[in-house]
Amino acid sequence: MAEGNRKPQQASRRRPAHWFQIxxxxxxxxxxxxxxxxxxxTLTRWLQxxxxxxxxxxxxxxxxxxxxxxxxxxxxxxxDMSVQPANIDAVHYARRLxxxxxxxxxxxxxxxxxxxxxxxxxxxVDTEWxxxxxxxxxxxxxxxxxxxxxxxxxxxxxxxDAIDPIIEDIVKGGVDPNDTAAMWNAIVDRANAGVPPxxxxxxxxxxxxxxxxxxYLTRAAVRKRLQRRR
Length: 230
What we know:
This protein is α+β, with helices and mostly antiparallel strands. It is about 40% helix and about 10% strand. The protein has helices spanning about 5-15, 25-30, 35-40, 45, 55-60, 90-100, 115-120, 165-170, 180-195, 220-230, and strands at about 75, 85, 200, 205-210, 215-220. The strands form 2 sheets. A 3-stranded antiparallel beta sheet has the order 3-4-5. Strands 1-2 form a two-stranded antiparallel ribbon. β3 and β4 form a beta hairpin. α5 runs antiparallel to α6 and α9 crosses α10 (about 220-230). About 25% of the residues are buried.
C-alpha cells in the first residue's frame, strides 16, 4: 500500500490493526477466522506483558510499535501496521513524554499498562491507542513488579540509577546491606530470573538496562554502592 494511503487511515482510526486479516478470496472459499484470531491486534503482545518500560509506554500511547530499547531515529512501525519516517509528530510527542517522565524525582523503571494509562490521562494525553488496556485494581507488588510508591532514598542520591531500587528492594527482603556477598548473590538471582531492569548474569557481571543503553554491574561496584549507603 502506498504511503499516501496510510496516513488518512492512521489519522481516522487511531486503533491497533487486527493481526490476522482475511482476504476476499479466502472469504469466498469459506475460510473464517476463529474468535481468538479475530481478537488479536498489534497491541495484544504488549498487553501480555505484566509491565512496560517508560520507553515502551510513551511509544505505545502515541501509536508506535516499539522495536527496540530506544525510540527509533529513522523509521517507525505504527500499531496500524504502517511504516513512517521517524520525524512525524508521534515520535516528537513520545520523546517529550519521556522527558517529562524522566524529570520526576521518583520514577519507577516499569509500571503496569493500566497504571501507564492513568498517568497519561493525568497529563492530558490522548489514550485512544490504548483503549484495549484493561482497568485493573491495585495489587501488591511482587519481585517481577515495580512498586510505584516512592522508595526511601539513601542519604546520598547524587549517583542514583536503575540499580538503587533493586538494592533497596533486596534490603527490604531481609538481606544485610553490609553483606556484599549476599547482596551480589541476590542481584545475580534476579538477573537470572529476568527481573527488570536486570537482563542477564555472566562471567562475574550483571547486565542491566538503562535509558541510555545497556550497562554492566560487577561485585566490586556493588560493594562501593553499599559503602555509599552507610
